């Protein structure tokens, strides 16, 4: 009867556990970095703190990310810009009206980005962009440009289908972005400090903003002049 090599099995288990831990490290580092960047800002966050929060050494962090700037870029890609492919695919496959699509965009943004720590990246960039122009340029290319393009596609879909009136798309995009930016700023600033009575219900706020925007975009039947109404009666 063969003798089972328990020492060999134990070593295999330890090795497998080590490999699983090694594979998880980039994700753990990104999660720790996101938390600290949002809490403290980019300038005030030190890589030693990120490594400590992730449970690894500073040297281990630099195995995966060459600098704090590269770590920040990876955080943005992991939480925001890496999702544009998925969001554009949703646009292509959406079956409802353009009004429904716009409502979905706003509510889905809140569920997947706005209500999470990732929305703090927006506040961080708005407050620190001038001090870190390279990161500002990166954010412009990775987040702002594709974000504007996607919102523009939603609005243009409505115009092309005769559901929305024609508008200046450059500024139309900002009309849609405005409530999203406000919520992101609110969540990570005054919203964290206000009394309960002054707090917003994000879902209600987004619903009202969506209907307000759609009220301005939607094409309506032009009512007949008053003289025609009197003649008809």
TrEMBL record:
Keyword DNA-binding appears in the UniProt entry: yes
Keywords assigned by UniProt, alphabetized: DNA-binding, Transcription, Transcription regulation
PROSITE patterns xref list: HTH_TETR_2
Domain HTH tetR-type positions: 23-83
Molecular function as annotated in GO: DNA-binding transcription factor activity; transcription cis-regulatory region binding
Positions of the DNA-binding region: 46-65
Presence of the UniProt keyword DNA-binding in the record: yes
A Pfam family this chain is assigned to: TetR_C_11
Matching PANTHER family: HTH-TYPE TRANSCRIPTIONAL REGULATOR RUTR, HTH-TYPE TRANSCRIPTIONAL REGULATOR UIDR
Record's protein name: Transcriptional regulator, TetR family
Source organism of this protein record: Albidiferax ferrireducens (strain ATCC BAA-621 / DSM 15236 / T118) (Rhodoferax ferrireducens)
């Amino acid at each position: 009867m063969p003798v089972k090599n328990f020492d060999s099995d134990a070593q295999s288990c330890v090795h497998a556990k080590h490999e699983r831990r090694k594979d998880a490290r980039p994700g753990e580092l990104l999660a720790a970095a996101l938390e600290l960047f949002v809490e403290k800002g980019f300038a005030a966050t030190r890589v030693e703190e990120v490594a400590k929060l992730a449970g690894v050494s500073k040297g281990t962090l630099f195995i995966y990310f060459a600098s704090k700037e590269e770590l920040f870029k990876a955080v943005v890609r992991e939480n925001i810009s890496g999702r544009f492919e998925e969001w554009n695919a949703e646009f292509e496959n959406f079956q409802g009206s353009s009004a429904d699509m716009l409502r979905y965009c706003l509510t889905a943004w809140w569920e997947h980005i706005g209500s999470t720590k990732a929305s703090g990246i927006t506040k961080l960039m708005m407050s620190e962009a001038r001090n870190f122009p390279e990161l500002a340029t990166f954010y412009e290319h990775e987040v702002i440009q594709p974000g504007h393009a996607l919102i523009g596609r939603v609005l243009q879909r409505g115009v092309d289908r005769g559901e929305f009136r024609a508008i200046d798309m450059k500024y139309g995009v900002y009309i849609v972005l405005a409530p999203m930016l406000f919520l992101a700023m609110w969540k990570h600033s005054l919203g964290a400090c206000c009394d309960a009575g002054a707090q917003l219900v994000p879902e209600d706020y987004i619903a009202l903003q969506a209907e307000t925007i759609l009220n301005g975009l939607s094409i309506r039947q032009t009512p007949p002049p008053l003289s025609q109404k009197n003649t008809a009666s």
